[in-house]
């Protein structure tokens, strides 16, 4: 008998599952149920239509119901909602423009995704308030901008969509402000990355307000009232404050929900019902590094899960190994990206965390066009295993993060990274790629040859009753432009001749601009009998990126040597 497969949800995971199912079984009866008017569209491309980087709407519509039927013999029911799941009878009650009926299945795949959170704030239902999640959302927003010509916009939320929409509005000529409740934008990344992203936004003319929530939207005044009483002009407001998994149908049918709040599936993407599989934003999966159950609402994992869910639903035994959360976002001319665990999430997961930071040209610095790249490695000090990585810069970011995502998938150590044979020519990289350099720094930290301290840990140490001595080994001109208050200034090239100025018997933290000269100074001190010495990883650049909490003097102090 023909297998009856029903797929509920027709965007990333669902459309992929239906197409994969047909390639596995030419004779199966496959029905795709989508509550919206479109099936298989590029939801990640919606912000770029608003920005006009993509000017043809049709490019976002990857498939139509007619096209799905012609190519895959899949019956796609759009504007159709699944309202009841009868697990015992193996049927789904659906309601569409043609009425309501039951669809019987042998195997069912749930791929219902999630729903954007819209806080129930005063004024949030006003006509100039939007979200961006579907093609109709995009059409409504685009039409509003074209017809009303707003001059100011507030984006509530500084995550992926928030950043993309802030750029889109700025490109459309709107004076735009991002309001983020958390201390930094892109809070999934560590603080110093968020600070760099905010600086890039400011350079592009986008305002950033962090650590403050939204209290109300005032439709008549066209302002957004913040929780601290401030009001920000906003002729257009877009909320992008998170996504909830769509679990109404799953919960009503008694399917098991996991500890992170997503639909629970096993390694075969099977739910607690042997006949029901699930994929995409609604499920929770295992994080490849931490082993914890997490939700990873990203298009890449959703598509892969859809493919595997269809394979397993139709009798193949293919395991899903979990997700790394590898992600990238464009911030005007810059790029921010990450993979695996951030430093914060690695500490929360119980790892003995090490951190190595480099700020280096994305290709050979003597070759024209080199742009500085910030790269942060997070590793386990006990095993040297790579735990995660983050990067920010104007070129070469995605390349490095993809290499490091591959390394994470292969459970490589920083020692493995140090030996990576990466492609080199001056227009593309350096003889020692930033990845290699960051791994060298991590190795030196682990061996004790050149111990590291992060800017965040230095901030804590300086506020303690017994702060370390801070040694600034930059040039006099660098020192004059700004330095840590109370820092002893000894340029690295003058350090050997001035060692009598550096007291022994006290912990010392050395810093330069980016870390290399600090490493040289640390080795000089170690070789002359200084015991507890650490280098500020990433140097002054990382200290600036950490943002706030440091007492900085703008001019040389009397202690300069």
Task: Note the main attributes of this structure.
561 residues, alpha/beta, FAD/NAD(P)-binding domain, 4 domains, five-stranded parallel β-sheet, 16 helices, disordered C terminus
Any overview of this molecule?
- By secondary structure, the chain is an alpha/beta fold.
- The chain has four domains: 4-115 and 244-313, 3-Layer(bba) Sandwich (FAD/NAD(P)-binding domain), CATH 3.50.50; 129-241, FAD/NAD(P)-binding domain; 333-443, FAD/NAD(P)-binding domain; 452-553, Rhodanese-like domain (Oxidized Rhodanese, domain 1), CATH 3.40.250.
- The strands form ten sheets. The chain has a five-stranded parallel sheet with strand order 5-2-1-9-21. Strands 11-18-12-13-14 form a five-stranded parallel sheet, with helices on one face.
- Helix 1 (12-24) runs parallel beside helix 8 and helix 6 packs across helix 16.
- The longest helix is centred in the middle third of the chain and has 15 residues, at 299-313.
- It is globular, with a radius of gyration of 27 Å.
- The model is unreliable at 555-561 (pLDDT under 50).
């Amino acid at each position: 008998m023909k297998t009856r497969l029903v797929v509920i949800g027709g965007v990333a995971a669902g459309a992929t599952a239906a197409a994969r199912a047909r390639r596995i079984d030419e004779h199966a009866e496959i029905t795709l149920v989508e509550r919206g008017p479109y099936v298989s569209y590029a939801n990640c491309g919606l912000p770029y239509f608003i920005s006009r980087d993509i000017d043809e709407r049709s490019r976002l519509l990857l498939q139509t119901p007619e096209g799905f039927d012609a190519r895959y013999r899949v019956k796609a029911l759009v504007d159709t909602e699944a309202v009841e799941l009868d697990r015992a009878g193996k049927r789904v009650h659906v309601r569409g423009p043609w009425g309501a009926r039951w669809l019987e299945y042998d195997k069912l795949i749930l791929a219902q995704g999630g729903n954007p959170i819209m806080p129930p704030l005063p004024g949030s239902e006003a006509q100039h308030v939007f979200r961006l999640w579907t093609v109709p959302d995009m059409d409504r927003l685009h039409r509003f901008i074209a017809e009303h010509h707003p001059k100011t916009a507030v984006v509530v939320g500084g995550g992926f969509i928030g950043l993309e929409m802030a750029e889109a509005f700025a490109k459309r000529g709107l004076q735009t402000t991002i309001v983020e409740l958390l201390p930094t934008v892109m809070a999934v990344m560590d603080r110093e990355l968020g600070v760099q992203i905010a600086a890039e936004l400011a350079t592009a003319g986008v305002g950033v307000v962090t650590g403050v929530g939204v209290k109300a939207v005032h439709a008549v005044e066209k302002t957004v009232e913040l929780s601290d009483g401030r009001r920000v002009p906003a002729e257009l407001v877009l909320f992008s404050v998170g996504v909830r998994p769509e679990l109404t149908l799953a919960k009503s049918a008694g399917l098991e929900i996991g500890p992170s709040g997503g639909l629970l599936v096993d390694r075969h993407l099977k739910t607690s019902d042997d006949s029901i599989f699930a994929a995409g934003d609604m499920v929770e999966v295992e994080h490849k590094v931490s082993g914890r159950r997490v939700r990873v609402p990203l298009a890449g994992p959703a598509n892969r899960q859809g493919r595997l869910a269809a394979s397993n639903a139709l009798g193949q035994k293919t395991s899903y190994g979990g997700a790394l959360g590898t992600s990238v976002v464009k911030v005007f001319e810059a790029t921010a990206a990450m993979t695996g665990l951030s430093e914060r999430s690695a500490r929360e997961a119980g790892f003995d965390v090490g951190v190595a930071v480099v700020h280096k040209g994305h290709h050979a610095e003597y070759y024209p066009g080199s742009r500085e790249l910030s790269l942060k490695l997070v590793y386990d000090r006990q095993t040297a295993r790579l735990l995660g990585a983050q990067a920010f810069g104007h070129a070469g970011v995605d390349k490095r993060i993809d290499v490091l995502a591959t390394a994470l998938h292969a459970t490589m150590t920083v020692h493995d990274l140090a030996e990576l044979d990466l492609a080199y020519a001056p227009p593309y990289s350096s003889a020692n790629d930033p990845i290699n350099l960051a791994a060298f720094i991590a190795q030196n930290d682990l061996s004790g040859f050149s111990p590291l301290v992060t800017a965040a840990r230095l901030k804590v140490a300086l506020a303690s009753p017994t702060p370390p001595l801070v040694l600034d080994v930059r040039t006099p001109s660098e020192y004059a432009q700004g330095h840590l208050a109370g820092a002893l200034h000894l340029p690295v090239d003058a350090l050997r001749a001035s060692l009598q100025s550096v007291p022994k018997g006290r912990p010392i933290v050395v810093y330069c601009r980016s870390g290399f000269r600090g490493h040289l100074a640390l080795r000089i001190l170690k070789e002359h009998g200084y015991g507890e010495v650490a280098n500020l990883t990433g140097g002054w650049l990382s200290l600036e990126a950490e943002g706030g909490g440091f007492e900085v003097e703008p001019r040389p102090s009397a202690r300069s040597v």
